[in-house]
Amino acid sequence: MIGWPMTQESGEVWEKFAVALADMARDLLAQDSVQATLDRIVEHATVLINGCDEGGILTVRRGEVSALAATSDVVRMADRIQQDLREGPCFDAVTDREQLYAIEDLRRPHEKWSRFAPELRKLGMGSMMGFLLFTDEDELGALNLYSHRPNMFDESAQRAGWVLASHAAVALSSARTHQQLGHALETRHEIGEAMGILMERHGLSEEDAFAVLKKASQDHNIKLREIARKVCETGERPR
Predict the structure, then answer these.
(1) Which tens digits make up the pLDDT trace of 146-157?
(2) CA 40, 43, 46 angle in degrees (round to 5)?
(3) What are the beta bridge partners of residue 78?
(4) How confident is the model at residue 3 (pLDDT cuts 50, 70, 90)?
(5) For a disulfide at 55, which of 45, 168, 210, 223, Cβ 3.0-4.6 Å?
(6) CA distances from 47 to 20, 24, 54, 73, 158 (A)
(7) How far is CA 83 from the centre of its chain?
(8) Are 85 and 115 contacting, i.e. CB atoms less than 8 angstroms apart?
(9) What is the Cα–Cα distance from 117 to 126, expressed in whole angstroms?
(10) DSSP-derived 3-state class of residue 225
């Protein structure tokens, strides 16, 4: 796939973009982990969005920024700048839930992010835009796209970015759900195996075996899965 200009909303251009998005969606759904999905999202963004040189996905949870995927160390530095300054589009998005935010020209003073914008300029960024990917209670995930040149993300590019982010959000949600289900099944299997050990080796009933695991988890403030895993490894009854 190749990038193409999005300055003219011709039917042919958007038709090609739609085909590329369909290919992207299939590719994202074919990934075997959440991290692989995240990495592919930023790769596709730099290819499909005209003028996009760098991309990254980060989360903001309880005021803490974490980088989930990035095309380069420069993007990771931009994420750290937001964290250090506690200023920037992602911090605002936590409270106002804006679906799109953009800085068209980082050469000019930016009233809203007066400290963040100059630091991005020092990193060689000319413009940026970002999109919410998900909001989960007190956690927010965002896709940030950067260009080394100013005024690269016009209205057409912003619309294309929003459509891409919407497709990416669906694929990411699917990957996260799949991962959670996988963890749940693994946890259920380990707990069942631990209960079987306690029943066989220590003469406990099924109900009592589960009660022992649960009590140990609560007493030691350790996840039930970890208690079960230790029983499976040692065969000992937890205290």
Answers:
(1) 999 999 998 888
(2) 150
(3) none
(4) very low
(5) 45
(6) 10, 11, 10, 18, 15
(7) 16
(8) yes
(9) 10
(10) helix
